[in-house]
Amino acid sequence: MDKVKLNGMMFYGYHGLYPEENKLGQRFTVDLELMLDLSEAGRRDQMGDSIDYGQAYEVAQSVVEGKAYNLVETVAETLAEEMFKSFSVLQAIKVTVDKPGPPIPGYYQSVAIEIERERPHELS
């Protein structure tokens, strides 16, 4: 399947289980793979046959910088749901939400959640 990819989008959010995370917030990095048929876009050269990158960025920004969630899993799931609502041509999505330096013991670069979803039948 064809893909529109948005890589390394950075947002500041307040997601986490600990009060400090909800108060101080932190940076989150998001990658999206938006899967759809791009053959018409390639032939017709019309934006309506694809997904507007700027609009996809704005949807992601509104989720990550919006309501605070306890779990990064919820951020990823909400991102997928909002993308399907926003883009009728979207058939499937892969969402990666990376949380650099979460407040847990150990040495590592980050933790991340990656989900893959297909368009729900009720949104078809």
From TrEMBL:
Boundaries of every Dihydroneopterin aldolase/epimerase domain copy: 4-117
Catalytic activity, as annotated: 7,8-dihydroneopterin = 6-hydroxymethyl-7,8-dihydropterin + glycolaldehyde
EC number, as in UniProt: 4.1.2.25
The protein's annotated pathway: Cofactor biosynthesis; tetrahydrofolate biosynthesis; 2-amino-4-hydroxy-6-hydroxymethyl-7,8-dihydropteridine diphosphate from 7,8-dihydroneopterin triphosphate: step 3/4
GO MF entries: dihydroneopterin aldolase activity
Listed InterPro entries: Dihydroneopterin_aldolase, FolB_dom, GTP-CH-I_C/QueF
Keywords: Folate biosynthesis, Lyase
Function of the molecule: Catalyzes the conversion of 7,8-dihydroneopterin to 6-hydroxymethyl-7,8-dihydropterin.
Family according to the record: Belongs to the DHNA family.
Alphabetized NCBIfam families for the sequence: folB, folB_dom
Name of the featured protein: 7,8-dihydroneopterin aldolase
Organism from which the protein derives: Alkalibacillus flavidus
